[in-house]
Structures are given as structure tokens and as C-alpha cells.
Amino acid sequence: MPLTPHIEWRDGQPYATKFQDVYFSTDHGLQETEYVFLQGNALTQRWQNLAQQTFTIAETGFGTGLNFLCAAKLWLELAPKNAQLHFISTEKYPLSQADITQALALWPELSLISTPFMAEYTRALQSGTPLMLFESRIKLNLLIGDATLSLQALKLNNTSVDAWFLDGFSPAKNPEMWQQALFAQIAAFSHTQSTFSTFTSAGHVRRGLITAGFAVQKKTGFGKKREMLTGSLVRHIGDANDT
Fold first, then answer.
1. Which residues does the chain have with pLDDT short of 70?
2. CATH 3.40.50.150 fits 7-233, yes or no
């Protein structure tokens, strides 16, 4: 059985007591996702001009599923109907059906997307098999367990990740999620020009991603956060042109 987090509800929003951290911005979680992850990876522009049949997003920290649902909504609005979004997410402490239902009730504007997802959520936790949603336009792989170990075991059949959502709890409160071994796995599953975005601007995260082969930029953060990070893979470590 997967580990489950201890959730407190503070002002109607979920709070993880193990990590002493919120699941999403108390300023406005939905707007945070759109700004940090959708805009941070330029998904609107990329999907309006999509040439490939499959676009793959991978995420560290599924949480309430808010990032997935926002990405799914945008995909269904913009992407060609014959293309598929493959969304892969890792989660060591998945929320219970009751908690995720309560959390997503905060976003009624996502109900057309969240309702069919929640109907399949328990099966995704128990079976470990991908969910095919919205007439197979979206494929969800929910990997339960440590992010680094889950990605090490992942088989993508030579498919690379196009965009990364790095969204674990704060690096100061959940350091296991933000370690060099994970950054190396992220780079290994990326192609040059694969992008990432994250709410944090912590120095060791920035340096770790650079070491793994990413070009990293600081951007203005969302809400109370002064800065965030975005970037793209520019080289695989071990390439002939590495020095």
C-alpha cells in the first residue's frame, strides 16, 4: 500500500504536516500553475504549433493533481485532436480519494476535467497501469514512490520528455526531492531543447540543474515568491563537446 500524507485543512486548503508546507500557493493555486508550469514551459505556443504526435510532460510531485488538470485542459483546447499528451508524474505520498476530491473542489472551473479523472484515481493508485482519458487524447502515468527511484525504473521506449514540472515541496523542507541524482535522471530522459520550470530559485537547485546539462534562467516568481527557475537542456553529460 502506498504511504499517505497527513493532511491538515487550513483556511480550506490542504497542508502537508510532514513537510510543513502547502500543496499550492495560498495566493491562488490555479494561477500559480498557469504561470509557473504552463507559461514557464511555453506550452501554449508549443501546442498551437505542434508537429509531433505525442508530447510528453513529466512531473516530480503529483500532489492534488492540479498541474496535471491544468495541462490537460490546455491540451484539449489547443492540441490537434489526433495528438496525445503523455503525462508522467511521481508521488511518494499520494492523497486519499477523499482528500484529493476535497482539494479539487476548490477549482469548480476544472470540473469537466477533474470529474472523469477522479473517477479513475483509485484505480491509478492501485493498478500502476496508465490511465487513458478523454478518448485517449491524454495518457496519465502516476508513479507511486520515491521520485528518483521511480524515474530510474521508468521505461519510455526511447521517448524523451519534452517538458518537466519540478514541483516537490520546498527544497528546504523536502531535500530528498531536490538532489543531484534526480537532476541526472531528469537530464537522461530529456532531449536537447527539453524544458523545465519550477517555483523555486534555490541556489543548489539551480547549480544542480546546470551541472546536469541545463541552461537555467531566473524569472520573476508567482505571488510572494521573488524568483523562479526555467530552462532547457543544452547538452547531455558525457557528450563529446563537454569539457
1. 1-5, 25, 157-158, 238-243
2. yes
